[in-house]
Amino acid sequence: MSPTPLDDWVVLDLTTGIPGAYCTKLLADGGAQVVKVEAPQGDPLRRWSASGAAVPPDGDGALFSFLACSKESVVIGPGDLDMVRDLLESADVVVWSPGSPVAGLSPREIHRDHPHLVVTSITPFGLVGPWSDRPATEFTLQAWSGGIIGLGRGDPGRPPVCVGGQAGDWVSGAYAAAATLAARLRGPGELVDLSMLEAHILALTYHPVTFFDMLDRPWQATRRLNMPGVATAKDGLVALGCATAQQFFDLCAMVGHPEWIDEANPFSIIQRATEVAPVIQDWIAGRTVAEIRELATAFRIPNAAVVNGANAPALDHFTERHAFLANPRDGFLQPAPPYRLAPAPLRPPGPAPRLGEHSSISRAPQRRDPLPFGGLRVLDMTAFWAGPSCTHLLAMLGAEIIHLESTTRPDGTRLIAGVPPTVDQWWEMSPIFAGLNTGKKSLTLDFGTERGRELLRRMIATCDVVVENYTPRVLDQLGLDYAAVKDLRPDAIMVRMPGFGLDGPWRDHAAFAFVIEDASGLTWLTGHPDQNPVEPYSIGDPNAGVHALNGLLLALEHRRRTGEGVQVEAAMVDAALNVAAEQVIEYSAYGKLLERTGNRGPAAAPQNLYRTADTDEFGGTDSWVAIAVAGDEQWEALREALGRPDWATDPDLSTADGRRAHHDGIDERLAGWCRERGADEIVDRLWSAGVPVAKVLQPHRQGELEQLRHRGFFEELDHPVNGSARYSTWPARFSRGPERLHVRPAPLLGEHNHELLSGLGLTEAEIAALEADGVIGRAPAR
Q1: What's this model's pTM, rounded to 2 decimal places?
Q2: How many CB atoms lie within 10 A of CB 315?
Q3: Tens digit of pLDDT for each residue in 547-565?
Q4: What is the pLDDT of residues 108-138, one digit of tens each?
Q5: Closest alpha carbon to 204 in 597, 594, 536, 630
Q6: Could you give the count of Cα atoms lying within 13 Å of 688 in the half-sphere of its Cβ?
Q7: How far apart are the first and last CA of the chain?
Q8: Cis previous bond, 343, omega within 30
Q9: Are strands 93-96 and 10-14 parallel, antiparallel or unpaired?
Q10: Do the Cβ atoms of 728 and 212 come closer than 8 Å?
Q11: Burial of 257 by CB count in 10 Å (0-12 exposed, 13-18 middle, 19+ buried)?
């Protein structure tokens, strides 16, 4: 077996909780020697089960066994500081989080005293800023991010609902791994300051501040159920989604109602779908899941079975692609790694370590040449959200990104701003396109023509990396699979991001974020328990993007060492299965099916949303706070903040199990207390007492948060068509810079045609002829 990309990296894991454990698991998958440093009592995850299943005293929780695959364990006692220093001197990377087993040693101190190290800190709000020491949980971070209410998710007659399954913790870990790789690949010595709040914003909301700045309106003013969304068929739940007007028109034809089609008014599809939803749901109820999916696939309507921990491993696509593996130590099923590299291998999962199984490490740190992204040229053959979010993270760190579109098929995000085509340059007015593509260049090429294909091949030969997110058949039909790209440039890295992978029975199925959420289990855990689940409608795309970036960075390290090109297969669904890993793990290990719990969760009690006395900014009563009590100390703090009411002194509430058993009663009391107060008063009183609490923020108000302003998370740019707007950045700050991540706004369609084609040696006359023939252009073809 060839060496793995990171087989000379030594990583110290000084974290507790899912974000740090998942970050270092991704590094271990890449071949790094990950040494988990633990206190004598062991990492709390060793005793954790989301379902409450009993963990044997001499064993470990299944989630720990998954996240600690291939790692080593070293126990550090209170007096072992010399051993800690030896470990730090022997390492290349340290990943740190609050609750670190090495008490009193901060990430800044580690970076100061060991300047060769890349030190990645994972904290709720970041290491600096007025909120840096405030308490938070994954649930309250979702609220602060705007991710609970911002996409209009859920029944407007019920409270808003969070994304289930602690999804923000997992995606924070993925961003931390990408930031660690990016920092280390450009040279040793860096402090990486990751904010989980900022990761939540990127994963759970769609550039709402940019949207508000550009169009002077929020993305959503009201909540609604997506239609048709998740519906009940004869034999189970099925999900159908329409991301474009054409897909809704095809759905109308499929259910036998072509009279619903209004091609003259494609912007009305959401309203029309809501009106006819009962008829569609009746049609679905009369058919089996298999019948509906077969028809929907034939009509090219995005669809999926609604997957959970019990049924996922038996689905034909996951079986054929070996999407789940047996845990190498304890035998339960766990997701395979979220991407596949060839010829660069990932490390096969090794058994998780028993507590203190490894006494020390003795590797000397390895030195490497910097790999500045300023020298990296990337052909970005992606559209919509998942692919552009991957390449955008590279663009912000200096890579040259050439975003390929055509005038006949521009990037779909240009078309979803709700700006009518009667407006001049309407295709340049999409805040989502603008937010995902700052710093990139735009090249339009119609590669449906022979001349376009020839120029595309010439462009590929000049690029280090090609990233694409078509269904597999598109490039296969063009003759531009990895073998063809390798012929054009032997050391090219090709990142392929199909929805369901390059093989298997679902390989050519259309995949948008919501379909990936349905097919992975993310939807299953989202929603109120007495209703059908609702799709998060957010995380499926950016989660795929950050995992693809991790795979790409591993491939770059492999190429640096060997000179070989690499194909990275980063299927969107594989990334989502990893973020939803706990469902299959819990069912396989303990026979426990994790279910929807609304806004409650496994890690805190009480945990819920509570309506406030405020009127929301739209004149309604949709004003909420999120409260989560994650332990006895925080419960005592809550009691004090409430004035120690008689009901809170009940001895049954003194333990987490007791509070969980009496959750309904606690909710009733907290709801009554919050209804009499405004959100600001509630947050001020509880947060200052040490209780995790948050406003359920409208996402376009993210830019008003003082913590984000202090950290410079939003940067302002002027756009030639849209004027000035604020743009989100990386969820991490790098001590070596860059200080500013956005250097220019998103490109106009075809803005860099002349520059890029001249670079291929074309003359002015040849470029003019291409434009006259429609091979290139600056406006969508009519």
Answers
A1: 0.96
A2: 18
A3: 999 999 999 999 999 999 9
A4: 999 999 999 999 999 999 999 999 999 999 9
A5: 536
A6: 8
A7: 53
A8: yes
A9: parallel
A10: no
A11: middle
